[in-house]
Amino acid sequence: MQKIVDFIKETFKTNEFIPLHEPRFIGNEKKYLNDCIDSTFVSSVGKYVDTFEKEFAKIVGSRYAIATVNGTAALHISLLLADVKKDDEVITQPLTFIATCNAISYIGAKPIFVDVDLDTMGLSPENLKDFLEQNCEIIENKCVNKTTGKTIKACVPMHTFGHPCKIDEIKEICDIWHITLVEDAAESLGSYYKDKHTGTFGKVGAFSFNGNKIITSGGGGVIVTDDETLAKRAKHITTTAKIPHLYEYVHDEIGYNYRLPNINAALLVAQLEQLEKFLASKRELAVKYKEFFTTNNMNFIIEPKDSKSNYWLQAVLLNDVNQRNEFLDFTNKNGVMTRPLWKLMNELEMFKDCQKTDLKNAKYLEERVVNIPSSVIS
Ligand SMILES: *Cc1c(COP(=O)(O)O)cnc(C)c1O
């Protein structure tokens, strides 16, 4: 264990505490922030939000991008765009950050948990197919859950730590079952599956720019889609559903104050300029970790087949829960921050009664995976 701590300290060239992931502001951040403040356009209107949306859409290869205050808001709106309503059901994975399930719950919909694959840590297409075949039927072009009588409107897979799940197979299954695919791509900016950017396979995709993500605006998020109608609707309901007018305030439905402020966008535009550099640094770190852990007979998690991962959070797979706890204890007591997986969603009080498949892979991973320091080394 001491050897691991030494290696990480050497890699990050420090003897101080090493956080799991810290942001790097080594580009035009201060310049754009100053410019933004000088312009007085610090709130929901301004050139940086517009620039960001254009640049982001270009980078991921989607037609439209709509910036939001955070990733949870982006997911919330994405689900509304997928026509998810109160009492509908939404399939997702038990191994995810709480935001995925919170967004589903804000609408009054209920999650159904389908197991993940061991190699991707994301939703398993085989398990999804089995669940649907055993529990659902299509009635009037809707996927009806025979157990509850409710409609399954959407499916939200997540690309865990930036490693893409088998999203093309998931999409195919969703299409057959009339389920709208919404991607939680919060962790996977810069990750590709079969050369296509994650978040662009579904009808809508959501990204996050929280402080710990690969690029950050402090807080921030974005919705991507190729559908012009949905893009317009996303912009409309994230800006209080106000009908554009020179001076009158008329709103045509209940909207949300979810627009990313220009001052956050100023930070984000500067961060986006450095994405390639950040990705290169993370990949280089992954190569170093892989070599070190392999020579020490430990399992470092690498990008799955057919994909290019952003290696946002680096991770090791330990032998069992005892070794995991030992690892967590030793590293955290010795100035190296490491973290276990999130407690599985189906085990949380709010979601413990939700329908689920056998979740043995998620459980296996929960007992063994640990995230290790992953910041960009500059
Ligand atoms: C970060 C994250 C989000 C969104 O989080 P915000 O903090 O609201 O930006 C959503 N889903 C997953 C899986 C995440 O990791």
From TrEMBL:
Catalysed conversion reaction: GDP-alpha-D-perosamine + 2-oxoglutarate = GDP-4-dehydro-alpha-D-rhamnose + L-glutamate
Record: active site: K213
Organism whose genome encodes this protein: Arcobacter cloacae
Keywords of this entry: Aminotransferase, Pyridoxal phosphate, Transferase
NCBIfam families, alphabetized: NHT_00031
Matching InterPro entries: DegT/StrS_aminotransferase, LegC-like, PyrdxlP-dep_Trfase, PyrdxlP-dep_Trfase_major
Record EC number: 2.6.1.102
GO biological process: polysaccharide biosynthetic process
Gene3D superfamilies assigned to the protein according to its UniProt record, in alphabetical order: Type I PLP-dependent aspartate aminotransferase-like (Major domain)
Protein family: Belongs to the DegT/DnrJ/EryC1 family.
Modified positions (N6-(pyridoxal phosphate)lysine) in chain numbering: K213
Residues spanning the signal sequence: none
Record's keyword annotation contains ATP-binding: no
Pfam family, one: DegT_DnrJ_EryC1
Pathway: Bacterial outer membrane biogenesis; LPS O-antigen biosynthesis
PANTHER family reported in the protein's UniProt record: BLR5990 PROTEIN, TRANSAMINASE
Protein name: GDP-perosamine synthase
Cofactor: pyridoxal 5'-phosphate
GO terms, molecular function: GDP-4-dehydro-6-deoxy-D-mannose-4-aminotransferase activity; pyridoxal phosphate binding
